[in-house]
Design a protein that fits this description.
It is a single chain. With about 110 residues, the protein is of the alpha+beta class. The chain is about 55% helix and about 20% strand. Strands 1-2 form a two-stranded antiparallel sheet. Helix 1 packs antiparallel against helix 2. The model has no long low-confidence stretch (mean pLDDT about 90).
Amino acid sequence: MNTKTIAVNETGHDLNEGRSIIFKIIDSQIDNYKSKYLADWEKDHNISPVEKDQKIGELRAAKEELLQMMKANESEDKEVNFRLKLEVEVAEKQQVPTEEDMLVAN
């Protein structure tokens, strides 16, 4: 397995600019979950949206918490500082069982 961790430190953004940057990141991840689900659903109409909905719900809840925190601290003498830590791992794909695998298992 190959793993790489990077950190991005951003400081000095006004509240609107900081909120915009952070929310774009969250919204992009929400869009990724929706797109992946749609692509998977096109292959298999029986796929459940539960996992996608749960992940999107968690992201929306986090976004709402951040929004409330920023609203509670709104003033001209405040700025937004944030750190993003990305841990990227390249790993072997997990194989999805085929129908043949499932028949053999039964």
